[in-house]
Structures are given as C-alpha cells and as structure tokens.
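Encode chain A's predicted structure.
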Amino acid sequence: MRGGRIRGGAAAIAASAVVALAACGQTASDPPPDHIEISDGPSAGPSAEPQTLAAKLLAAIVLPDGARVVTRSPDPLLDRPAEQPVCTPLVDEHEWAMVDDQSPARLQTWLQQAQPGALQLDGSGSLTSSGAVELSTISGKWTGDYPDFAEGPETVISIVASGGGSALRADVEIAPAGAGCAHSGSGAGAQSGSG
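Encoded structure for chain A:
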C-alpha cells in the first residue's frame, strides 16, 4: 500500500483484498489522509466483524519507507501489547516491523506525525531502566461511531531499539459487543489475530 512497506500474514492479505482506503497508493512522503473509508459493502463499516475491522485499521497504519514487516516478535518487550483495554473477549490484530537507521525516538516522532487523521493519537510514553529508555509507546483511538462494539478500536504502537535501528509492534484492539470491560487493572483474554 505504501512505498517500501512489506506486509505478510493471512490477515494482511485478506484485508488487502477487501479494504477500500483513501490512503491507497500512499508513500511515507505523502501527507496522511484525514479520512479512511472502511466500508466495502452493505455489511461492512462500523458494524463489521471486529476481526475484519481490526485488520483493515491495522493496514491503514502508516510506516516509513523501507520498514520491513516480520512474522515474529523481534524483541521480548514486543511479545505482548504495551497497553490494552481490560475486556474479555478482546480482538487484537497486530504486526511487527523493523526500521533500519532510525532511533526509537526519531521513529516515534515520525510515526506521530504520519498517521491518518482517522487515528486520533491521545498518548505516548516510555519504559525506562537505569535511566535508559527501553520501550516507547504511542496510543490512540480510531474516530467513528462503533455502536456494535463494547469498546471502539484502539491502537498502540510500541517501539524498541534493535541493532542500528528500531523494531515496533502495532496493535489494533476491539472489544466486541457483549464483552465484559473494566477500566482498571491488567488486560486479559486477547484473541490473537495476525502475527
């Protein structure tokens, strides 16, 4: 979809087949779209199946040119989402990517500026150990009306240093209708999607 981005996995292939995005053909140097069309017919859109919608939104996350999507977690800190709603069940579509020649701080800044307008970023943070940043995060919610879900789509992007560059994990999380959600404590019950 974007210059230099290499995707893999069944969820990404399925999403590519049905996604109609305003961002199609976008390269990392193009400005991000303000709107992402997620409807692919009368049965899609905000009432679409949570797994399908999560895969579509994951495909809309903008990565820099040259980012390589990988099939396994490149770092133990990226084995799980850095944040997640406390909902059971929870749909989590995710992917990992490697970005050469960009420090985590530089990549975090780039990612915050490059995301589509439909992804309203509302937080960032870091995990430090002995004064050194080990993990940086960016989080946000997708705009839109999602009456069929207990919790609307959320995204968390986690970034760590890896070799001379960075590795990241991008998650789109949705609590389907009927999910039991609490707003404190730790997450549980994620249904893993891609990866």
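The chain is about 15% helix and 35% strand.
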